[in-house]
């Protein structure tokens, strides 16, 4: 017996001399808000069933893009009464729709994200519920009513007939809503919420909810993203981020012919109204816009889509990429149903997004440095710099070659294009190919 034990010890020692592949045990750290690069998951492009497991199976490909935060669209049971199969029509705030998997599947996805140093936030719909949510029968006073007809109404002014509008004058409903949100923070371990139609819910509710959620999270930080653009999302509500809707609207118009300088004005307008430390989410598409058109079509082609992405994420950070965008999916995606995506399509597009998000992560100046604009009609030109680095970004927003004046302080300097690793000397003007962009250091 002693000889056997000695042999085992010797064998263990010899094995111990070899490198052993171990599970990543690094403690997960939630990224600071200004450092977030977010990936939006629409489960219905990953699999027709058990899609939470399908997302987890693709975690390496998602993380390799350079993103550090995952936003998962609603995965709760979907209402049937008056329903249209919208994931934003929720019949139970504390459960998972069988279509997507189980609560254990989602807990596994949370664990996998954290093991890959990614945060994960859930879509939350506080403005309304499904008509067959238990609250409708058990607590009809929790809903907005048409006093004349004495009936619950759908949300106004949108007339979303598949959902019932919640009444935020009711204190008990507010407490039940916050309790449901706490469940996902405390019991499941998510890192915050993206809050749907945040502007439709009173800011003082968000203040109460966010305060209680942060307390419930204990020492863990959480991230709160408002789908909206009201200033009181920040000044009263306490959100960390909200949507750059205005910037995206201007982006679309600029790529259709409006002056490139309009983007610089739009960026300034959004950030002039923003409290210090808060961030606008910038995007070229999301689940709402993708129902109409994908970036590679909206911005003419893949080159236009990439130019638009550079023009979106580098002025002030807040980068978002919508799952399917990274493979240049060309067709509209109706998130009310399963839409198969070929994840092996256009590997060159995937690599380009990976390169851009990699630069965004590598250089703090690019995502949160001081921005200096240089207005031009056809080329978006701006500087980004911090104490360590200095960049000049140029984006041709036209599908034809354009020449642009180089800022005086850059003329004669040797520069390197971080996107291509090419080095050259800047003259007083520079010509860009159709939809070409340069990230010069």
Question: Can you walk me through this structure?
Answer:
This protein has 441 residues and is α/β, with parallel strands linked by helices. It contains 15 helices and 20 strands. It has helices at residues 2-16, 51-57, 59-64, 103-115, 134-138, 171-188, 203-217, 232-235, 245-254, 261-272, 287-290, 295-298, 302-313, 347-362, 364-368, and strands spanning 37-41, 69-72, 119-125, 128-130, 145-146, 151-152, 163-165, 192-196, 223-226, 241-243, 279-281, 319-322, 370-374, 379-385, 390-396, 402-405, 414-417, 422-425, 429-432, 437-440. The protein has an 8-stranded parallel beta sheet. Strands 13-14-15-20 form a 4-stranded antiparallel beta sheet. A two-stranded antiparallel sheet has the order 4-7. Helix 2 runs parallel beside helix 4 (103-115) and helix 13 packs parallel to helix 14 (347-362). Residues 1-23 have low confidence and may be disordered.
Number of separate strands: 20
Q: Given the C-alpha coordinates, what overall shape results?
A: globular
Major sheet details: 8 strands, parallel
Q: Give the CA-CA distance, first to last residue.
A: 68 Å
Average the pLDDT over all residues and give the rounded result: 94
Oligomerization state:
single chain
